[in-house]
Amino acid sequence: MLNSLHPTKQTLIKSAVKFLETTAPEDITGEQILADSGISKGSLYHHFADFPDLIEHAQVYMFSRYVGFSVEAINTLLHNAKDRESVLKGLQEITRASQSPNLNRMRSIRISAIAKSIRIERMRILVGVEQERLTEALADLFRESQERGWGNPRLDPKTVAVFIQSYTIGKVLDDLTPTHMDEEKWYLLIDTILANVLFPPGLKAVDA
Amino acid sequence: MDFKNWSSPIVGNSHPTRDLLIEKVIFLMASRPLEEITSELVIEESGISKGSMYHHFKDFPELLEFSYVEIFARLAAGQLNALNGVLLGSSTREEFLTGLRSITHGSSDPALVALRLARVTAIANALSSPRMGAMIGVVQESLTHELSKYFEEVQKRGWGNPDLDPMTVSVFVQAYIVGSVVDLLTPSRMDFEAWVYLIDQVLGVVLVGQTEAD
Lengths: 208, 214
Fold this sequence. Notes:
The structure holds two protein chains of two kinds. Chain A is mainly alpha-helical.
């Protein structure tokens, strides 16, 4: 996504991403980014409608990067899967990697991007494209699993794709409270749902 | 179980003018897109003067923040009451699951969808603003606690999966409801009936699963 953009635009987005990794979007100022990137104010406003527009693009870029990693991990999993057990094992690893407490920053950025999409039309369009890419990749994974006889044939692939993202994002609720749930118990619950509802034992491959 | 004392953290505990303004914002949020809710509109709709509004709130965003927290708390109270009703009205695991299914069905109500979007905005604000974070944190903690107690009760009746940790179940149930807003971001949507079916399976197979005792 970034490579197709004008070099100045890329520099500005990269600089904004650097700040977003540690700072809330609302607390980042135009001055900080101009000083960090060495780009002039005139140039910034040539490439972006306003300063919030730059921050929105940077948030979408971060989301897009996350989508890229996720899609790659999913494709690798699908490519290497030999049987139901190996799919489950791969998904357990992805669950642990994508929902770890260390990723609370990523969850927070994603929630902020979603909240902005609710309010701001231009953000909705940018986020919608990336969101669709992730939902489709997950739906494809599940469809493929159904064809290979591992995925529950009664479930709609797109719904499963939304469901997996829903609990991953919604886990942010636990980041809000002073006391937190036991991380291992969360993984146990997710593993149980994967192994009994999405990929139940004893299915037969669908005849193609 | 009794959720009567689980009440609003804000409205009813402050000045009537403050309450009225918050009520008006909540009413508007359920019926209009968020970007249309401006201070001018709230003043016009509430009949309260600008001077009075800024006497009670530092600025318009502060009024919105309080309204979000209130919405968050009300949604929570509404969910808890509905769940409680289902538990009280059920004498078998099947009846309980049927009641839960009707709650999932009701979640597509457009007014509830609008409020869920407002809840996501409240979460986003809570993550970036310490003031909002503190207010939401208290409500969220209390909600997670109440839902944990609820699941413990369901376990005591022999319906809840005894292998699961109540607090984890509490976070999980809220998580998929809140997180399902991702579907609203894409041009094409999932089939809602397929969603109800999936949730029903998760509830019936895992959370309120058939145990060996059945």
